[in-house]
Amino acid sequence: MKKLFTIIAFTAQSLYAQQHPVTFANKSDFKYVETQINQSEVLNSSFRSIKNQIDSLLNKDIDVPVPKDPAGAYTHEQHKSNYTLMYNAGMLYQITGNSKYALFVKSIFLKYSQLNPTLKNHPQATSAFPGRLFWQALNDANWLVYAGMAFDCIHDYLTPTERVAIADGAFKPIVNYFIKDKKNWFNLIHNHAVWACAGVGIVGIATDNEDYLTAALYGTEKDGKAGFLAQLNGLFSPDGFYHEGPYYTRYALLPFYLFANAIQNVKPDLGIFKYRNSILKKALDVALNQTNLTGEFFSYNDALKDKTYHSNELVVAIDLAWQAYGFDSSYLIIAKAQNKVILNKGGVDISKKIKSLPGNLIYPYHSAEYTDGANGDFGGLSVMRNGKGANLSSLIFKYTSHGLSHGHYDKLNIQFYDKGNEILQDYGAVRYINIEHKWGGRYLPETNSYAQQTIAHNTITVDEKSHYNGKEDVSEMNHPNRVFGSVSSSNLKVESAIDDKAYDNVKLFRTVYLFNLPQSDRKFVLDVFKTYSDSTHQYDLPFNYQGTLMKTNFKYISNTNALSTLGTKNGYQHLWKEAYANRVNPFTQFTFLNNKTFYTISTLADDSLDIFFTRVGANDPNFNLRREPSYILRAYGKNKTFFNAIEVHGNFNPTTELNVGSVSAVTSIQKLQDNDEYSAFEILIDNKKLLLIQCNKDFQQKSEHVFNFGSHQLKWTGPYYLSYNQQQIQ
Amino acid sequence: MKKLFTIIAFTAQSLYAQQHPVTFANKSDFKYVETQINQSEVLNSSFRSIKNQIDSLLNKDIDVPVPKDPAGAYTHEQHKSNYTLMYNAGMLYQITGNSKYALFVKSIFLKYSQLNPTLKNHPQATSAFPGRLFWQALNDANWLVYAGMAFDCIHDYLTPTERVAIADGAFKPIVNYFIKDKKNWFNLIHNHAVWACAGVGIVGIATDNEDYLTAALYGTEKDGKAGFLAQLNGLFSPDGFYHEGPYYTRYALLPFYLFANAIQNVKPDLGIFKYRNSILKKALDVALNQTNLTGEFFSYNDALKDKTYHSNELVVAIDLAWQAYGFDSSYLIIAKAQNKVILNKGGVDISKKIKSLPGNLIYPYHSAEYTDGANGDFGGLSVMRNGKGANLSSLIFKYTSHGLSHGHYDKLNIQFYDKGNEILQDYGAVRYINIEHKWGGRYLPETNSYAQQTIAHNTITVDEKSHYNGKEDVSEMNHPNRVFGSVSSSNLKVESAIDDKAYDNVKLFRTVYLFNLPQSDRKFVLDVFKTYSDSTHQYDLPFNYQGTLMKTNFKYISNTNALSTLGTKNGYQHLWKEAYANRVNPFTQFTFLNNKTFYTISTLADDSLDIFFTRVGANDPNFNLRREPSYILRAYGKNKTFFNAIEVHGNFNPTTELNVGSVSAVTSIQKLQDNDEYSAFEILIDNKKLLLIQCNKDFQQKSEHVFNFGSHQLKWTGPYYLSYNQQQIQ
After folding, report:
1. What ipTM was assigned to the predicted interfaces of this complex?
2. DSSP-derived 3-state class of residue B81
């Protein structure tokens, strides 16, 4: 790192000789866009939608109000709208050459030049990092990014006096607030600080202010421990896995790409897009592979489920990545779905390439084992895929570290998607972004009291306490360890990880297997979740299923006339106990229907277990939580094994009313052995035996194992053996 | 009716000279289809999907199992599949001329000829009308319809001996069971009996059995009091409104059209498609206008919400209607969306016409006032529309009679759709059709205990009892009366109806207004719901909203740690009381979000009122009910007025995160007068006055009214006056 910094510092040149515009695109790029406007429908409509918007406002007086409101309400939305208008009108000026657009931008800027020097902390500011124009500094950083590019576009239109007036009036108060008053925040390795650096850096380039740019690249202390390059080093694993998860990758990719693009334009010698083995390309690719069939980002950590790769951040990232890294057919598939491009060379090229592409292509989703942590040694996340086209199933196994302030207490959590639907969900965050009515669009208290808690996840909660007792600073220091696994076979994906830090004196060991039953259209997830402890505990393993209960093979008691909560704290206070079953026969089945497909969870607990059907919604006085169900398995003891077979089966067509395969094919589960050395299970499916033997001690790929059952001996190599009807699945 | 019957009987001719096939299409029609197969993509793919299905099964032994299972399970699904296979293969034989298809059909028929004579009542039969092949006779009727057409297609391929074997073995046991053992059922005026008549009639034509056809047309007593013509007379109002509602129209249209088509082919003199002023065309048109933007049928009465005009029944009806009635551009829009045609002349013509049509056209939805009852004098239903294209809002006001066994206790109910979403819902039925796990796909007990009850609807329940005390026979004899209204203006739709039979000693009087606020994108429904009684009652008016609570202008108490039910019977036992507010300030607002749009209900009760936030799901031991919310206004007294303004506002875009208009523009409601003569309200919206004066006594269109407020006098003509900012809306 240190060496690298030296080289970079050496190549840095003065900005003063700079031509403008340069941050987003230069004059000839914009000219090129202009010549190509009618060459493709997508480019043309992207251009038109901006032009129509601005043209309809050109003769109006644009309000630059004194900041007052929270997110979702008037002054917030107006300032947000203003920076987009300025940016769009700035580009229009460059593309069309019509000075009315430049005048429009200038007149707004002059108002900000009056307003910004008068601002103190926003009246709705509630965080440690309040903004000036907005309730949080993050939004002020957004403003800088777009306003900076807008200024750059009209730089040459402005008189030198006007430039100084805007630089000193509109920009300086916010930049100084960031790099002086809030320098601790500005120097963080966190998505907010990425926006802050991008904003300050882009304004630096636009206003020819080398100091700003240096602070943005290397931190306020100019030592490279903070700033954009440190963020590129610290926020991604070597694979490109972003520490805060896909929802925030989406958000961070925008300033990463916009600022990198600006840096590339003024300091090409820095080779920013090649930095860290092209970490920005990896970051984009990992983000895209962490979406579901219709583009929704996996919802683990604080995530809102309606965010997809159609969002503006990904349009910008795809088109800039195309420009920076060249042809990538997977980007075309995304761009086709986005049906929108940005007004630069990358956007033009892509818009032409996707013209002849058919619609509804599916991104080349693939299985992957991502490491977490800047050095790739802080746990990780495996994405396991099965099935082609729209028949895709995705099993996500999470053994990452915490993921900063938006992480959850969810060690060894799984999430399962099938045919575009979320089947075993991660609740995501409790937030109605930008909706004034819902606490100004902020994260709601139930994010912490429910969504981040362990019980909200498909993993084990011990003694009704969340992992690390819900302490972020402790969680941030630790992570599970992957012990074995492979996603390279098309037949079988396996991943296994151990966590012995989430609880004192309890070790959690989970292994999941995803495969198609040979000669069958049934898919299975086998889930072996073992606990080890010297003392007796209560272990709760929820399946937060999405769907409607169809059938159980056991009797349960419904709380039909009154409901109470499952517990009193750590998320349990938010769960209504709709029904329960005590000491259930060890072979337990539960079938639910989600969107025309049936799913059955067949369970063998190592002795009798309790089961709860719960629903989210208790202690929710403001109706912030979705009323969603969970199926919770509870066992008491020291060393316990939860063995579950999750089966995907059947198809119900409500149009034709034809219904096939609605009944589970699993008719029994038997434990053959379960000790320190092996866990072995025999599952009867369609009257044939599925055999799983898993090693609990020796996880070496090359170790040879012998397993005796009865007079029969089985030999294999590696940490597990799976067969159906005596044929090995591997 | 009597006279008509004579004429019809006179024109009836013997079937014995009949050429085959004739029921679905004749030889030259099928030949025409063959020549056109490659002329359009839709026709070709419709043909291919049938051909691929049959070709994949040609060499397989098709199982004709002994009936055993309920709906959704093996034997049920197999017999259902078999009749489709026979029908499809029969058509393929005619179209391709390849006798392998005829042989395929014959071999299945011969198995049925063995099986059917041995059958008694189905072992899963639980209704009064059990089937033989299926659990209910209705499904046996389905079988007759398709098997009849299949037989007709291979009629000439069979030897006379084979024909007799099939007619006597496969058909006769079921037909005789219908027209002899179950003649009371066969002679009903009800959708089941429509299927039964169509089945017996089509088999009659296919097997040259005049007796069957006569029974099908005129009932088993051959007196015209039952049978197909009586059904055409009795099940529709003169407008074509089907007594059981749109969900069952969809279902009944299939046998209506298939049998009418067959009748037209053998007895063209009957002019069946022109019968009763082309009642079958009206029926189809009324059904189509009772769908929402994406084709879902309005969900009142026992309905499943996933049924759309894409369903097979509507493909058949559209294509046969095209053949019978000629060009209708609205049918092309539906056919384009269906993307499928049937293999007859109508299907061929339509497939060519829609080739050049753009996708995503919207059916020409329009406002309408439909009457109910064979003579149009049994109440009715108004459909009020506002807005163009995807911005369509639909308000449904229901003052029909009961609607046979699938009707609900829902006098004066409203339902509201906006932009394709159901905003104020009718729950529909509680049923998972054809899903074995859910009581064999039958109607579940909660249909009666909850969905049919008054409290499940957006209308008033008095003293926690359903309308007519939940007695179907009483409800069937009565209906509300429309008192005034108009849907002819594009600005304002108004409908008003009174019911004084649903409760003893209580009169219910509801008037709804749908309009756009002038010079605004805000839509409003004003809802004036008055009760009259000599004695004190509890009046509950629910708004079964779909969405998430955003905001209220009043404080409520949440039942955060324990839930109890709202009541103990008549549907109340299924409602959890999530929160409540007592004696709320008369100007009360509640805002919710549904799919990016905000909706606010602003209420003025005539004195203080109680409010409940409830959720469906109590006393639901089998998890059959959806967990959906309701907002219930409760008032106590004799004569009460519920005045509500339902406002459609704002737009939240989760992709751009821009949010506009999320706050209601209504800031107060004042009652100016509310007595026997007038109800007058002043609503402050954006600081301007919306004034509504409604007449409560004189509903004449031509009556002149004078209303004094203060020194000011207002004059108008007709039963209501509405103005905004002193400009009349009309």
Report:
1. 0.93
2. helix
